Amino acid sequence: MKILSTLHNHCTMCDGRSSPEEMISAAAAAGFTDFGMSCHGYAPFDPAYSIPGEEEYLTAMAGLRNACSGRLRLYTGIEEDLFAPSAMPERYDYRIGDVHYARDRSTGEFVPVDGSVEDLLHVIRSLFHGNAMDMVRDYYANMVTASEKRPLVLGHFDLITKYNERGRFFDEDSDEYRDLALQALEACLASGAVFEINSGAAAKGLRSVPYPAPFLLRRLRELGGSVTLSADCHYAPYLTAGLDLGVQSARDAGFDEILQFIDGRFVPFSLCD
Ligand SMILES: [Zn+2]
Ligand SMILES: [Zn+2]
């Protein structure tokens, strides 16, 4: 199967390392026909990580779209965190909905759950009084709320496991964890979103498999869910890094097709080709 399109990509307009032009050139060089930029939506509590402002981002993307016309179709997407909603969602070609933070109910502070091991430890100790499973419960409840905003794609469904390799903070094989994740999966599926197989962390060696974990992908397939591939790329040389892992994950879970965004809509591509 030829990979012609991915929608989850970042650039220097948010926390990416490559300029938008470098990302677009890499996409064209990789043979993509369709390419989506999905910078992190403006988060006032985390400005270094997000776009400076929506109007600025939308204007820049409109200019880029004109500049690359004829090379590939460029889409203006947004990775919309539950806690950093867009003020103008209708102006994007698509939204990727997800959750990167835990909210401290006593201070109102937002702490990333995917920033570092230290951040995650802070979340567990300070926000959840040392109970990691309470953090997991809160995270998945937030994912369900994010899905209810009807994004086109649901991003890195089990991001909460990013720094939990080998069960460092909670047991991903436990019934308690799996029940929480599976119940959230079913609730999120009801929103109609396409789930991404996100190989960003796996390509960097931070995880052994892409998100979502194999047991979640298998259940998603059983329930009739749809998946698309994403490298969650922040650096142009890695634009396609790990996408082969995503294809393998989809096959291992029993999917026989994945969706690619072509000419403004998702199109199924057979994994048997
Ligand atoms: Zn993300
Ligand atoms: Zn991302």
Lateral arrangement of strands in the main beta sheet: 1-2-3-4-7-8-9
Structural class: alpha/beta
- Cα-atom radius of gyration: 18 Å
Number of helical runs? 8
Task: Count the beta strands.
Answer: 11
What's the main sheet like? Answer: 7 strands, parallel
Extract low-pLDDT stretches: none
What proportion of the residues is helical, as a percent range? Answer: 25-40%
The first-to-last residue Cα distance is 5 Å
**Heterogens:** zinc ion
The domain count comes to: 1
Classify the fold: give the CATH topology.
TIM Barrel
Mean pLDDT: 96
Give, in order, the helices and strands.
EHEHEEEEHHEHEHHEHEE
Principal-axes geometry comes out as globular
The CATH homologous superfamily is called: Metal-dependent hydrolases
CATH architecture term: Alpha-Beta Barrel
The proportion of residues in beta strands is: 15-25%
CATH C-level: Alpha Beta
Explain what this protein looks like in three dimensions.
The protein is an alpha/beta fold and 273 residues long. The chain has one domain (5-99, 140-167, 183-270): TIM Barrel (Alpha-Beta Barrel), CATH 3.20.20. It is built from eight helices and eleven strands. It has helices spanning 20-29, 54-67, 117-127, 132-147, 175-189, 200-203, 214-222, 243-252, and strands spanning 5-6, 34-40, 73-81, 94-98, 101-103, 110-112, 153-154, 194-198, 227-230, 257-262, 265-270. It has a seven-stranded parallel sheet with strand order 1-2-3-4-7-8-9. A two-stranded antiparallel sheet has the order 5-6. Helix 4 (132-147) runs parallel beside helix 5. The longest helix has 16 residues, at 132-147. The N and C termini lie close together (5 Å). The structure holds zinc ion (2 copies). The site of one zinc ion has 4 residues, from loops. One zinc ion binds at residues 79, 98, 100, 155-156.
